[in-house]
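Sample 3 of the quickstart, ligand adenosine-5'-diphosphate:
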Amino acid sequence: GATIQLEDLSKSYPGSPSPAVDGVSMDIKAGETVILVGPSGCGKSTTLKMINRLIEPTSGRIRINDEDVTDMDPVKLRRKIGYAIQSSGLFPHMTVAENIALVPKMTGWSKSGVKDRVEEMLDLVGLDPREFHGRYPRQLSGGQQQRVGVARALAADPPVLLMDEPFGAVDPITRDHLQDELIRLQHELHKTIVFVTHDFDEAIKLGDRIAVLRERSHIAQFDTPEAILTN
Ligand code: ADP
Ligand code: ADP
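Result:
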C-alpha cells in the first residue's frame, strides 16, 4: 500500500452554481481501507475521480507516498492506482482476458508477463481461468462481472485501489459474498483502498476508517467503525 494525502481538494463543474467538492483534506495510511460514505450527490464519485485524474481538480493537491501526482500523466498514474466501478465497467467488445490485460499492456508489461498475470488474477478472484478467459462480459453473471472488474483493477499490481460502489449492482447475497472476498484480498494484498458507498452497513463492515460526508464532501466524521458506532 501507499499513503494518500488530499490537500484542500475542490471541484466546480462548469456552469454549476456551487462546487461539487469544496476543500476536502484527508490523510490515508498505507494499507488501510477508507470508506467514503454519504448521500447521493454529496461528491463521493467526484472526489474519487480526482484522485485518479478522470476529473481535473479545480484546486488542491494529491500526494501518493509523498509524491505530488496532481499533474502526473494519467497513463503513468495507472501503475499506481487501480479503479473498479459499479456494473464492473468492463468493455463489452473485449473478452475477460483482454479486459484484465488492458492496464498491464498499457503500462509496458511483456506479452508473457501479461498472459501469466491474467491467469493469476482470475484465480485470485475465484474464477477458473480455463472457463472464463475467453468469455465476453455479457456471458457472465453480475457477480462474476464484478469479480472481473476487481481483477482488472488489480492487474498491474497498483499500491492504491479506488472502488466506486463496486457491489452496488449485484443482489444482496452476492454482495455479501463479494464483501467477504474483498476483506480476504485486503488481508492478502495490503492495498490502500478508498471505497465509495452510500450503504452505511457496507461502510461499517469493510472500513478501517470511515469518512462520513455531507454536501460538497464536507467531512462530518472521520474515524474507525467502532468510534462512529458509539458516537
Ligand atoms: P456522489 O458520488 O456522492 O453521488 P457526485 O460526485 O457524482 O456525487 O456528484 C456531486 C455533485 O456534482 C452532484 O450535485 C452532481 O449533480 C454534480 N455533478 C457530477 N458530475 C457532474 C458533471 N459532469 N457536470 C456537472 N455536475 C456534475
Ligand atoms: P448467477 O447470476 O446466479 O451467477 P447466471 O444465470 O447469470 O447465474 O449464470 C449461471 C452460470 O451460467 C454462471 O456460471 C455463468 O457464468 C454461466 N452463464 C451465464 N450466461 C452465460 C452465457 N451466455 N454463456 C455461457 N455461460 C453463461
